Amino acid sequence: MTDFVDEINRLHRAVGTRRVAAGDARTVLLRRSYDAGIADVWDAVTSPERIARWFLPVTGEFKVGGRYQLQGNAGGEILQCDEPELLRVSWLFGPDPGFSEVAVRLTAEGGESTVLELEHVAVVPEEFWGQYGPGATGVGWDLALLGLGMHLAGGGFSPEAAEEWSMSDEGKACMTRSGELWGAAYAASGADAGTAASTTAATIAFYTGAEPAS
After folding, report:
1. How is the chain classified by DSSP, letter by letter?
2. pLDDT (tens digit, 9 = 90+) per residue, 121-151?
3. The model's pTM
């Protein structure tokens, strides 16, 4: 049986900034190890059939320069694909998405273990970042990588079961812990304590439906 909070605790998180052509970007970085060979992990994060089993259905032209679309979520262009080590895509959502890219890097760690690093770089409106900080993006990626881990271990939720789980006490505890850890990563990046606390509370409220603390 999966201990979801323990899985969330396994992730390393970092928050930063980067200068890109579109302006000053925010970065969130996640890193964890999976008990699976690099070829298996690469296939899980690049095969449309497998992506649909742990994340969302995806359509498109799956080659460098091709475009993809996740059902009800982001779409964009496949910018770089260096099997089995690096996948980089633009990650665009909404009518005015601005600059947003996601890179997934894999490193073999022995024969049957793989380190996955996911970095999301985006130019974020200041009012949105000021309200939610890194957690709005970070918690979503935490949940995605949780789903990937379950898939690689031979399990996983159906879309209906995933939605039901997200509304359960167990799901809300998992998202709360994720929000707290992103708040800690934000503070470690140099954010003042008050900002880290307020954005953490807003993120947790957004994901769980709880009223933010006053």
Report:
1. ---HHHHHHT-EEEEEEEEETTEEEEEEEEEEEESS-HHHHHHHHH-HHHHHHHS--EEE--STT-EEEETTS-EEEEEEEETTTEEEEE-B-SSS--SEEEEEEEEE-SSS-EEEEEEEEE---HHHHHHHTTHHHHHHHHHHHHHHHHHHTT----HHHHHHHHTSHHHHHHHHHHHHHHHHHHHHTT--HHHHHHHHHHHHHHHH-PPPP-
2. 999 999 999 999 999 999 999 999 999 999 9
3. 0.95
